[in-house]
Amino acid sequence: MTNIPAKARVVIIGGGISGCSVAYHLAKLGWTDVVLLERKQLTSGTTWHAAGLIGQLRASQNMTRLAKYSADLYVKLEAETGIATGMRQNGSITVALTEERKEEIYRQASLARAFDIDVNEVSARQVKEMYPHLNISDVVGAVHLPLDGQCDPANICMALAKGARQLGAKVIEGVKVTDVHRANGRVTGVSWANGEEFGTIQADMVVNCGGMWGRDLATRSGVTLPLHACEHFYIVTEAIEGLSRLPVLRVPDECAYYKEDAGKMMLGAFEPKAKPWGMEGIREDFCFDQLPEDFDHFEPILSMAVNRMPMLETAGIHTFFNGPESFTPDDRYYLGEAPELKGYWVAAGYNSIGIVSSGGAGMALAQWMNDGEPPFDLWDVDIRRAQPFQKNRRYLKERVTETLGLLYADHFPYRQVETSRGIRRSPLHEHLKARGAVFGEVAGWERANWFARPGQEREYRYSWKRQNWFENQKAEHLAVRNGVGLFDMTSFGKIRIEGRDACAFLNRLCANQMDVAPGRIVYTQMLNARGGIESDLTVTRFSETAFFAVVPGATLQRDLAWMRKHVESDEFVVITDITASESVLVLMGPKSRELINKISPNDFSNEAFAFGTAQEIEIGMGIARAHRVTYVGELGWELYVSADQTAHVFEALEDAGAGLELKLCGLHTLDSCRIEKAFRHFGHDITDEDHVLEAGLGFAVKADKGEFIGRDAVLRKRDTGLDRRLVQFKLTDPEPLLFHNEAMVRDGKIVSIITSGNYGHHLGGAIGMGYVPCAGESAEDVLGSKYEIEIAGERFAAEASLKPMYDPKGERTRL
């Protein structure tokens, strides 16, 4: 084909709304050598049959920012391109049929206000006024967002494609990318085919916007892109007489959404157990295809809908539609550069919210590609959160049966996925299970979240109030504060950094001084050029040329990618993931020294074993490496034990702890202890968008050590002053609970959100953290205000502190 160039700066693979949005936004940034290749026709995969719902409010501030951007863009596109987008802001209503759902949507309304979204809590009677066809007999509450709406997905895709072409991009249909070329760890181009015609394009970058084809395409390049198609059902009625324009309606308790369009009603479903599709691959000629009807599968949703919307009983069905859409293991899409291959970018896996997401996602990815860093924190959807094992097709097939339904499930705090479990386990898994552990899953790891008492059921009973494990957590928490507790933290990511230039390399990446004596542990952050926090970690120096980094299990792939990306060509540095080789037993509490002295001949006194140091020790009849650090604010040690000796060391600790009332503790307790101590949690309290000084971590920054990434931004911030501060809050009423995303109210006005929350069992109330805007203000000004936290529309008084409310001087860690 003569119109296919031999070279391009970037090749975008896939002509759905995601690919067209990326092409449009790159062209907007002045990229003229952009080529989009679509295997069949634009929109022919998933975009053409999408429902086109535009809901602005998402689970976090930046995801909401992207959705709002999409809504604004789709309003403007028609004037720019001349193609009607069908975008109309007719609003949306979400109704609750239970008190728990009401609590959830009212919490979402508080969050919407914090994000400056127009939102109103409305009564059942008010819903009836806006939606007269609705049966409201069991509606207990509702939320109305006036600026939500609906659109024509296919036309929006066509408008984006036309806009991209107008700006110089090439959008070519009927051309399939058959391979992505690579050399020396980066993309060099693609091969393409059009019938009997074949060719190549040299390119610096590719963007996989392949939707449900994306996983298999990525796998051929060694890239992890875990997604799987599911069948998605909806019906469209015949025209209904007198049906006027209506808001989009969501009834999540019945797994249903409703959209009026051209006098007809659409009813769609996110049923609790979905049907995976395409396990054996997608046939070559798939284009604008529908899947076979399955009325039996859809019938339970329809039965509830006829009760909810009585007019459906007599309305004829014009279309019964079943089409495939791609879903991911955690219900969040993927964006960013793949850690395995430089220049390989991804925008895929939209979990049925691709229309509202793709406008903003295309903008964010284009800026990321252009600038070399994301425009703001995108960790929610960052491709680097994907774990290599998750591309396993059996795992994905089982998991997506659940994730489709999670869109409309109750989003309770601490809710655990139920499918595809038990993939990654500590050597102590069965030991902990036998002792009452109730497990949660993060990055595939099974982790003990809490321990049930003998005779207590070992399951979560979810609620927005105190859940059934609240008292268990309290007992574990107080054991750590007053006695001794033991955690299994084997899920920590563990990285060895070694070689001739390891020290210089780490000093360039880390804000703290890394050139320390062997045996010293350094708490540090890796920063970006804006002074934002890319990673929060500890690094132990083993020798002149060997270092050991510990990172959260969920961020391991991100941290590995960041390190490897910054190794310069003339540096000799080897970076190795050794996570699976060692277990981590965390012994914490004022009696931890007494306990470990019973089974180890080593000297654990302050004089012989200072805080912030590591030593090899004998323990039981084995060998371990003890790190004297803490994430709970107490005296204690992290014990790094080879996998083969883990069970023995655990049993030795358990036997020795019997007389000291040693308590096995879970991750919920780790979190409640750390938040009392105001320790930050990456991904919530600190992200790549949060400046290290505003996060209150300046003590871990050594700007006088020489150049490091982010140093200039640190010095600038020191000169100009802080625009906001991370503050710890405690509710004065001991009853309400904080989780995260509650609205922060300062002197009567919502100014921010709670970034993380838990219950402080020692302090006697819910504890939260959040950033307070404070440009030009002193610390005294910040603390001089009156604070409240808004929870589901109700405001509760809160105490504020810039120092940890628990042990502000850190004396307990050095007992």
Q: Give the rounded overall mean pLDDT.
A: 96
Shape: globular
Q: What is the CA-atom radius of gyration, in angstroms?
A: 27 Å
Write down how many β-strands occur, each being a DSSP E stretch of 2 or more residues.
39
Assign a percent range to the helix content.
25-40%
CA distance, first residue to last residue: 75 Å
**Helix-and-strand structural type:** alpha+beta
Low-confidence stretches: none
- The percentage of residues in β strands lies in 25-35%
Alpha plus pi helix count: 18
Question: What does the main sheet amount to?
Answer: 9 strands, mixed
Blueprint (SSEs and pairs):
Elements: E1 7-13, H1 17-28, E2 34-38, E3 53-54, H2 61-81, E4 92-96, H3 99-114, E5 120-122, H4 124-130, E6 141-145, E7 149-150, H5 153-166, E8 170-173, E9 176-183, E10 186-194, E11 197-208, H6 214-219, E12 228-237, E13 248-251, E14 256-261, E15 264-269, E16 276-277, H7 295-308, E17 317-327, E18 334-337, E19 344-348, H8 354-371, H9 393-406, H10 429-434, E20 437-442, E21 445-451, H11 470-482, E22 485-488, E23 493-498, H12 502-509, E24 521-527, E25 533-541, E26 546-551, H13 556-565, E27 574-577, E28 582-588, H14 592-599, E29 614-619, E30 622-627, E31 636-642, H15 646-657, E32 663-664, H16 667-676, H17 711-720, E33 724-731, E34 743-746, E35 749-753, E36 756-760, E37 765-773, H18 779-783, E38 787-791, E39 794-801
Parallel strand pairs: 1-2, 1-11, 2-8, 4-13, 11-19, 22-32
Antiparallel strand pairs: 3-7, 4-6, 5-6, 9-10, 10-11, 12-15, 12-16, 12-17, 13-14, 14-15, 18-19, 20-21, 22-28, 23-26, 23-27, 24-25, 25-26, 28-31, 29-30, 30-31, 33-37, 33-39, 34-35, 34-38, 36-37, 38-39
